[in-house]
Amino acid sequence: MSIIRLNKAAYIHNLTKILDKVGDKNRVILILKDNAYGHGASIISDVASELGFGFCAVKNEIEASEMVNKFSKILILSHIVNGDENSKYIYTINDMDAIKNIKSGTKIHLAIDTLMHRNGIGVDEILTALNLVKKRSLILDGAFTHFRSASELNADYFVQKQNFANAKILIKKWADENGLKTPMFHSHNSAGFERVHKLHDESVRVGMVQFGYTQFDENFDLKPVLSLYAHRLSKRLLRAGQSVGYGAKYTATNDINIATYDLGYADGLFRYDGYKELILANQNKILGTMSMDSFSTLDVGDEVCVFDDARVWAKYFNTIEYEILVKLSKDIRRVWV
Prior knowledge:
Blueprint: E1 3-6, H1 8-22, E2 28-31, H2 33-37, H3 41-50, E3 55-58, H4 61-65, E4 73-76, E5 90-93, H5 96-101, E6 107-113, E7 121-122, H6 126-135, E8 139-144, H7 156-177, E9 184-188, H8 190-194, E10 203-206, E11 226-238, E12 243-244, E13 250-251, E14 256-261, E15 295-298, E16 303-307, H9 310-316, H10 321-326, E17 333-336
Parallel strand pairs: 1-17, 2-3, 2-10, 3-4, 4-5, 5-6, 6-7, 6-8, 8-9, 9-10
Antiparallel strand pairs: 1-11, 11-14, 11-16, 12-13, 14-15
């Protein structure tokens, strides 16, 4: 069966590099949503919690339930408010209606809309939101924003930083006036985190950087954690003039030994159409069209490494490594090596 191998030394190396910037595990929020970006939330969280990280963020309550007893703090980012929120979790407030309808007494983080205009409370709504938080007896544990262009070298990043700085001033003042502890703040996602030397007064949300992928800072010295392998289903001699796969997209020019391996687009791989050459790890290449459950290549033995760096596939399919990784099926077994 196909398998995903996770390099534990690489993961620990990446977390160490992150801590070099932050200086404190208590200010690191590990983003483990969407099956930890395809790496396997259960297996990743086991190691992260063993290493002493206590705060993670996930997409919804289903994902959060898998993190209970592993982390002391679990932030849910995309919860649909229903009035029956669980006291074990911290919930993101993504608009004013959420404050009105969430269960009284719930722990929350306010999302602040500083420019992205996707989720969050506008800076001009903060005081109204905070007063409603108090009225509804909600527990304000934190406030954050999300950069829309941290991976692009333009002015948006700096505009949002200033907008969030203004928001922090309002929130700190409100907390002081009400005799409350100043909530934690976090604004830097992975790409934003690459752009700062040190973080002094905020926590950081680390997503893909923990798995070895940077957007532009090659000096960060991170290592990809995930490698994808497929196993041989069958082998044969493909004679000169014979074709393999749907549509006969590959025809041998001389006799070659080929094999069919047990990964296809049903396992979350992008469908290779057999035209422009797609290189696998170790300079192998797919021969012909990818099938639903398999692909063919030169026979290299019982297993073949499909990729050990998702950026290769992302570049080929004109997308980002995030999409390549999150699509990998949860049914593929994941193991530490």
